[in-house]
Input
Amino acid sequence: MIPPNVALDGPRVSRWAVGSLLLAAVAVSAFDYGVRRDAALQQVAFEVHRAMVDHTASSPHRYRVLVPMLLQPVVQAAERWTAPDLAFRRVYDVYYLAAFAAMLLALYAFLRRWYPQAEALVGPLLVAATLPIALRNNYFEPASFLEPTLLTLALSWTCDGRHWRIVPLTAVASLSRETAVFIPVACWFAVNGWSLRSFNRTATAAALTATAASAAIFASLRWWLGAAPHIPLSDVWAINVGWEGSHAALTNVTLFLGGTGWLLAAAGFRRAPAFIRRASRVVPFYLAAVAVWGVWYEVRLLMTLYPVLVPCVVAGLFGEPRRDR
Output
């Protein structure tokens, strides 16, 4: 029994302190992915960025315009003081740190809806500890580091009943990655579950509008930027089912949540907030898309699912939330 004079939430620390802790938690991952990367990989990343800005990149990079177009003016400004490749590196070094920190802060704020401060911090810190696994086996995928934050924001607004906010957010996300279409799907499931009879009309209208906006942007980018060369799906499948690719996929997927994190998520699913359990219905659809079009050992693709997986991990550790909706 908890004594009446003991606060349920435990000792509190300021938002500034929480932000500083989470920023420090991802500093090493950002440093390794940016500053310490092999010079050859840095050169490849620089060339891909320039091709994306010039709209000459291969698919799908050509159509993931959001991050390079936002950062290119900053890169150009930095080029006044240093060489173009070095300017690119320094700007993206800052971007990686900011993107990783924003991801953790969004997850923390999301978890605080249900859990006390100390418990809510565990989820983002687990992500920070296992982030190096997610960053393996890719050379330049800045879009992947925005998507978890955007989905977390969308789910947060949906949880508050601000359904129409997901429409502009999905539109922005669609300029970053094609999988933005799963944002309104996740939000619809989070409100309605599998119900097709007593669904929330506002949430459904917002989700349909956001899905249509995502599809329109998908088509418009390909019309505007033209057809880009791409890796045939047969080649992707050959990588995935080959010995080296499948072995790497098994290792990376197992370690994505630190190995035991998957066990905690499975144990915590039934005790997770009802909103999260409903939203998790998007997972099979997302994984099906990854299975068909993705390279399985690139587990950065699973980062999008952090807003669904991490609350289950926290529930596996601490049980049912103190407050639920």
